[in-house]
């Protein structure tokens, strides 16, 4: 897409604009803002309008207007044949959706949260991800599984898990993680148009956040490429990879680090599978230091794969060990103070970056 | 404190009025255990079994205890609503007001050897099993004195020493778990049963039918209790179930439909079910009940049902009002005495909240406790693994 290339060449980052700081509007190419919620809603609307085969299925997506209002207005516009309220039976309706995808339709399945996708995971992996391979190309599965992923606020152990690493380990799936409204629009449209099963991991806490969007992003033909990361902030000293909510944290960390003379490069992964190894490695070859940031559990996580990739391809360029910032290695606690310890904070990323730049207090002084 | 009462007259259900003003009483709960015979609001509807009689035996003591317990639960849930709006409770909060008769009636039919498991609308079930108000409010506010030490939250209350197994966030999961409790009870020859509660939304879950099938094959003492409040979040039962006759959905398994707003009917049905399950394996109870609040505090509860419907149920079928009318019409207590009970429970709730507010949040070290029962000395990590780490004992 020409627009995307142009932005990359200019090295411009789309600033996340908070409504209170509207003076920054002058930095963007347009004065328009859009919440992630509206971005997703408009993307669904446009893709359903463009292709009759696209339909939406999930709990409360129709009459309730969506548990998180992502599908607001769609039932009224497209009718009950294309916007379907399901019973609370994920294994059943996910299987039904995959079957529909086998026979030529393009389902968008909403999981109220991805925690509930575990009830349907057999269909996501065994019925969707592997079918094109097992059938030697006869059965492609153009399905999108979407919904909020990761921690919200105070929802406890069974409602807070991040599923990026699990799904991204599976060949045959594509796994996308939007951060901004531009990401949400471009990646969801790409996901719906893609002939393969896509797991589309949103974040509840981002739904209400507003980002500036250019006219190009607002155009109904807008689409982002799958498998390409975005450099949100160009830097020289240390690379920070992040996805979803952690991108916001990484950008805040970069602002703090700048005051200490550390110029951080922030990569918004956008796509966990395929993982944009070339962008990540090119960045590390420039900065020589890497912090990976994610919300999910650390062991066998996204950061572990990124670290392995960099060690394999860019070992000689590393000037410091790769640092991983991730969710705590415990089930998510409910109490607010414990939850804060269990989820990565901006200061965790800052601290790790300083360590990688050898700016922490030396061991001798700490003794 | 006991009201002194004389033996009942020949007319069943009639008792002499208490000596009120002459005796100063703090807690006018009657300990009179003279049997009173009553009828449930409606007869039971049976599937593949013979319904129990709608004639029930109760006592003044029992009725007043029911009144007090339900009034306490009602007050507790309404207080939780306020705490949530004041942001002292975070995350999800699913309130049970309207459904109190199910928790109270069930407990009256069981012993603490019997097991109960439910989903996330668990505050009152926890209380019925012997939980305290402090444990409830402290847990809701994420404090140390909570029943899960602040680590679980609203959806994850447990009381294992009373055989209350939670407290589950994933719709339907608690049903196979409940059948598993029953399996263990049979295996260990406990002569006890398990009540696995689920909602009309969960009633369509496949895992329920899988677990029921196995329970029936293996004659497990499992009672599946559908708390049918007619809405699975925002979806009415007829939009989610081809057959909303949940008591019949067990097909080969017998079932009973019960007025879940009538605590005496609930008790009768649970007594019947326990006896049945011990001899013949699984049985389904459908409790016809209603929640006044929305699905959770994030749901107004009025976009998919009318305010008239909600007030209608409150006027015609409220479980506490039913018992109040019974108590008054049988002269078991005066209106003032009942109001005094309500004032008492309100104070109990307020005191517990005040205590919970003073209670400290968990220590940071609690982040790493109870990951395992046997941690083998492995290391666990915080968000920054080089900064925060712990050895799991």
UniProtKB/TrEMBL annotation, chain A:
Listed A to Z, the keywords are: Oxidoreductase, Pyruvate, Thiamine pyrophosphate
Q: Which reaction does it catalyse?
A: N(6)-[(R)-lipoyl]-L-lysyl-[protein] + pyruvate + H(+) = N(6)-[(R)-S(8)-acetyldihydrolipoyl]-L-lysyl-[protein] + CO2
Q: So what EC number does this one have?
A: 1.2.4.1
Question: Residues in domain Transketolase-like pyrimidine-binding?
Answer: 34-209
Q: Please give the coiled-coil regions recorded for this protein.
A: none
* Cited InterPro entries: PDHB_mito-type (IPR027110), THDP-binding (IPR029061), Transketo_C/PFOR_II (IPR009014), Transketolase-like_Pyr-bd (IPR005475), Transketolase_C (IPR033248)
The answer to keyword Oxidoreductase applying to this record is: yes
Co-factor(s): thiamine diphosphate
Q: What class of enzyme is it?
A: oxidoreductase
Matching entries from SMART domains are given as: Transket_pyr
NCBIfam families tied to this protein:
PRK09212.1 (NF006667), PRK11892.1 (NF008854)
What is this protein for, i.e. what is its function? The pyruvate dehydrogenase complex catalyzes the overall conversion of pyruvate to acetyl-CoA and CO2.
According to UniProt, the name of this protein is Pyruvate dehydrogenase E1 component subunit beta
According to its UniProt entry, this protein's organism is Hibiscus sabdariffa
TrEMBL record, chain B:
Q: Where is the Dehydrogenase E1 component domain?
A: 68-363
> Which prosthetic group or cofactor does it need?
thiamine diphosphate
Supply the InterPro entries for this chain: DH_E1, PDH_E1_Alpha_Subunit, Pyrv_DH_E1_asu_subgrp-y, THDP-binding
Q: Recorded E.C. number(s)?
A: 1.2.4.1
Q: What class of enzyme is it?
A: oxidoreductase
Q: Which reaction does it catalyse?
A: N(6)-[(R)-lipoyl]-L-lysyl-[protein] + pyruvate + H(+) = N(6)-[(R)-S(8)-acetyldihydrolipoyl]-L-lysyl-[protein] + CO2
Q: Which UniProt keywords apply?
A: Oxidoreductase, Pyruvate, Thiamine pyrophosphate
Tell me, what does this protein do in biology?
Answer: The pyruvate dehydrogenase complex catalyzes the overall conversion of pyruvate to acetyl-CoA and CO(2). It contains multiple copies of three enzymatic components: pyruvate dehydrogenase (E1), dihydrolipoamide acetyltransferase (E2) and lipoamide dehydrogenase (E3).
Question: What does the subunit comment say?
Answer: Tetramer of 2 alpha and 2 beta subunits.
**What name is this protein filed under?**
Pyruvate dehydrogenase E1 component subunit alpha
Species, as recorded: Hibiscus sabdariffa
Record lineage? Eukaryota, Viridiplantae, Streptophyta, Embryophyta, Tracheophyta
């Amino acid at each position: 897409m020409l627009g995307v290339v142009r932005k990359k060449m200019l090295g411009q980052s789309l600033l996340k604009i908070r409504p209170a700081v509207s003076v920054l509007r002058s930095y963007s190419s347009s004065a328009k803002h859009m919440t992630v919620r509206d971005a997703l809603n408009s993307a669904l609307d446009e893709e359903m309008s463009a292709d009759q085969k696209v339909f939406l299925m999930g709990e409360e997506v129709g009459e309730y207007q969506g548990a998180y209002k992502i599908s607001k207005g769609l039932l009224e516009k497209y009718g009950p044949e294309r916007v379907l309220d399901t019973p609370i039976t994920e294994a059943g309706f996910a299987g039904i959706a995959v079957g529909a995808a086998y026979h030529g339709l393009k389902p968008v399945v909403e999981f109220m949260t991805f925690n509930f996708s575990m009830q349907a995971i057999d269909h996501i992996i065994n019925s969707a991800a592997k079918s094109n391979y097992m059938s030697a190309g006869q059965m492609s599965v153009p399905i999108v599984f979407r919904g909020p992923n990761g921690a919200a606020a105070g929802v406890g152990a069974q409602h807070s898990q991040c599923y990026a690493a699990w799904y991204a380990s599976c060949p045959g799936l594509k796994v996308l993680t939007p951060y901004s409204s531009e990401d949400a629009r471009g990646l969801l449209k790409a996901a719906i148009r893609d002939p393969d099963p896509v797991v589309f991991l949103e974040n509840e806490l981002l739904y209400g956040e507003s980002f500036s969007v250019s006219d190009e992003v607002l155009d109904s033909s807008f689409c982002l490429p799958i498998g390409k990361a975005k450099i949100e902030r160009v830097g020289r000293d240390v690379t920070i990879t992040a996805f979803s909510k952690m991108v916001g944290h990484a950008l805040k960390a970069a602002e703090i680090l700048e005051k200490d003379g550390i110029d951080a490069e922030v990569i918004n992964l956008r796509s966990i599978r395929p993982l944009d190894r070339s962008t990540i490695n090119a960045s590390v070859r420039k900065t020589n230091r890497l912090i990976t940031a994610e919300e999910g559990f650390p062991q066998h996580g996204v950061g572990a794969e990124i670290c392995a990739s960099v060690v394999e391809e860019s070992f000689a360029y590393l000037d410091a060990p790769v640092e991983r910032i991730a969710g705590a290695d415990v089930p998510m606690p409910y109490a607010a103070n414990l939850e804060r310890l269990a989820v990565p904070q901006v200061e965790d990323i800052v601290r790790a970056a300083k360590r990688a730049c050898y700016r922490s207090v030396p061991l001798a002084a700490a003794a | 404190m006991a009201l002194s009462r004389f033996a009942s007259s020949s007319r069943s259900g009639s008792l002499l009025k208490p000596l009120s003003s002459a005796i100063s009483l703090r807690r006018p709960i009657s300990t009179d255990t003279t049997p009173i015979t009553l009828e449930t609001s409606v007869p039971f509807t049976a599937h593949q079994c013979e319904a129990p009689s709608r004639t029930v035996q109760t006592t003044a003591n029992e009725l007043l205890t029911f009144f007090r317990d339900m009034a306490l639960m009602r007050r507790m849930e309404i207080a939780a609503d306020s705490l949530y709006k004041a942001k002292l409770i975070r995350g999800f909060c699913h309130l049970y007001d309207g459904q109190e008769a199910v928790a109270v009636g069930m407990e009256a039919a069981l012993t603490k050897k019997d097991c109960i498991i439910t989903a996330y609308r668990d505050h009152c079930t926890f209380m019925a099993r012997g939980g305290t108000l402090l444990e409830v409010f402290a847990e809701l506010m994420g404090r140390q004195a909570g029943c899960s030490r602040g680590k679980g939250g609203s959806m994850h209350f447990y009381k294992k020493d009373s055989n209350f197994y939670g407290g589950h966030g994933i719709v339907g999961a608690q049903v196979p778990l409940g059948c598993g409790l029953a399996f263990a009870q049979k295996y260990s020859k406990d002569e006890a049963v398990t009540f696995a509660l689920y909602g009309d939304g969960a009633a369509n879950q496949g895992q329920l039918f899988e677990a029921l099938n196995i329970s029936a094959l293996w004659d497990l003492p499992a009672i599946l209790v559908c708390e049918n409040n007619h809405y699975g979040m925002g979806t009415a039962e007829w939009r989610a179930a081809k057959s909303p006759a949940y008591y019949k959905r067990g097909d080969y398994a017998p079932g009973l439909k019960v007025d879940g707003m009538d605590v005496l009917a609930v008790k009768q049905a649970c007594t019947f079910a326990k006896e049945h399950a011990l001899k013949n394996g699984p049985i389904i109870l459908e409790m016809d009940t209603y929640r006044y609040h929305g699905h959770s505090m994030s749901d107004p509860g009025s976009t998919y049902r009318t305010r008239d419907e909600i007030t209608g149920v409150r006027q015609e079928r409220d479980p506490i009002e039913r018992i109040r009318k019974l108590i008054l019409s049988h002269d078991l207590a005066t209106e003032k005495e009942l109001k005094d009970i309500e004032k008492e429970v309100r104070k109990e709730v307020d005191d517990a909240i005040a205590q919970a507010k003073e209670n400290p949040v968990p220590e940071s070290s609690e982040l790493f406790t109870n990951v395992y029962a046997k941690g083998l000395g492995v290391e666990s990590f915080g968000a920054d693994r080089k900064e925060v780490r712990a050895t799991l004992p």
